[in-house]
Specification:
The structure is a single chain. By secondary structure, this protein is mostly helical. The protein folds into 2 domains: 81 residues, Orthogonal Bundle (DNA polymerase, domain 1); 185 residues, Orthogonal Bundle (hpI Integrase, Chain A). Helices cover 46% and strands 4% of the residues. It contains 13 helices and 5 strands. It has a 3-stranded antiparallel sheet, with no helix packed on it. Strands 1-2 form a two-stranded antiparallel ribbon. Strand 1 and strand 2 form a beta hairpin. Helix 1 packs antiparallel against helix 2, helix 2 packs across helix 4 and helix 6 runs antiparallel to helix 8. The N and C termini lie far apart (62 Å).
């Protein structure tokens, strides 16, 4: 039942009163549970691109690159970040043509960023390299001179969410009110399946198979555009069904037509490119309100990976479950240190 001052009716879940409790991690994974398919790359004709006296104009080139990225299925937010960052380089170094981009341009721009951390510089350099690779692939740059430009940083091991703190959070959420209930189900979904937040907010009813208790994730909602199948248990199935039931009530009230599983309070999708994800902001709000540490979608996803490892899953299988492109990313998620490597290798001597 809603508290005093809160909206009632469509937001009340009268039959849900008990908080979600996290049991010891359950669930088994088999190799056949996951199918990874890489979609074909889409190409765009760049022959008719307008060239100035000094070669290809940078603004025209970026328009083509932007369209190529869109056709390749890159997310709008990622495209916007790449183009925005590269244009900062272009403006700062006064670049008009693709041929104007030199090694000195990159170093000059990085120096102009001022006193920011090496991690931030590394992140921006990664974006610049990604766009330059596109320009190179299109034949507008003869040599990929930027490939050896690196910023060395100490890799910090990011810790997974603490299971006890996550349990405390779930015990404090008002399960009789739609928004906290939705957030609790979101936390439980990431905890039990390890999916990314961006995939979660695009999840539709067609992606859930309650007959086999599986998520059937299509490439269009995945970061790496790979198809992925993930199992979940009966507890999560129960909460997802209840959430879908409440979603139908809210959609009917606001006359919305969609099949999104995690909705806004007005029945709309949470996948809004121009704004931070509502559930991400809510998790941050809960963490500050209840003074909880390391409560975020990434931290919960790391906890999922850590639990899989504790259950005996190998790194390759965990990497597939997390839809990582490289094992190095997975080892960072798992926080495998040099001491862990030393200890593990001794068993094979």
């Amino acid at each position: 039942m809603a508290r005093k001052g809160q909206r009632t009716g469509i937001f009340d879940l009268e039959d849900v009163t008990e908080a979600i409790q996290l049991p010891s991690f359950e669930g088994t994974f088999k190799e056949e549970d996951m199918i990874l398919i890489t979609p074909p790359k889409l190409m765009i004709d760049v022959v008719e691109l307008h060239e100035g006296k000094k070669g290809v104009e940078i603004n025209s080139a970026l328009l083509i690159v932007k369209e190529q990225m869109r056709l390749s299925g890159v997310r709008k937010a990622t495209i916007s970040e790449y183009i925005y960052t590269f244009k900062r380089l272009v403006d700062a170094m006064k670049i008009e043509y693709v041929d104007d981009i030199k090694l000195e341009s990159i170093f000059g721009w990085l120096a102009s960023l001022g006193d920011i951390s090496d991690v931030s510089k590394q992140s921006r350099l990664r974006v610049i390299k990604a766009v330059l690779n596109r320009l190179y692939d299109n034949g507008w740059i003869e040599r990929n001179f930027w490939k050896d430009v690196r910023i060395r940083v100490d890799t910090k091991i990011k810790l997974p969410a603490d299971e006890k703190q996550l349990s405390i959070l779930l015990s404090l959420l008002d399960m009789a009110n739609f928004i906290p209930f939705r957030d609790a189900v979101a936390v439980l979904t990431i905890y039990k399946t390890g999916i990314r937040m961006n995939t979660l907010i695009q999840l539709e009813e067609k992606h859930i198979d309650f007959k086999t208790n599986s998520l059937l994730l299509t490439g269009d909602i995945m970061k790496n555009h790979d198809v992925l199948k993930l199992p979940f248990d009966d507890e999560l199935a129960l909460y997802l069904k209840r959430l879908i039931t409440q979603n139908n009530i809210i959609r009917k009230h606001y006359k919305k037509r969609n099949e999104v599983v995690f909705l806004s309070k007005f029945g709309d999708s949470l996948d809004v490119e121009t704004k931070p994800c509502a559930i991400t902001k809510r998790l941050s709000y809960y963490a500050k309100k209840y003074k909880l540490n390391n409560i975020s979608a990434h931290a919960i996803r790391r906890l999922y990976a850590t639990n899989l490892r504790k259950k005996g899953a190998d790194v390759v299988l965990i990497s597939k479950a997390l839809s990582h492109k490289s094992l190095s990313t997975t080892t960072r998620y798992l926080g495998i240190s040099s001491d862990d490597v030393l200890k593990g290798l001794r068993d094979y001597l």
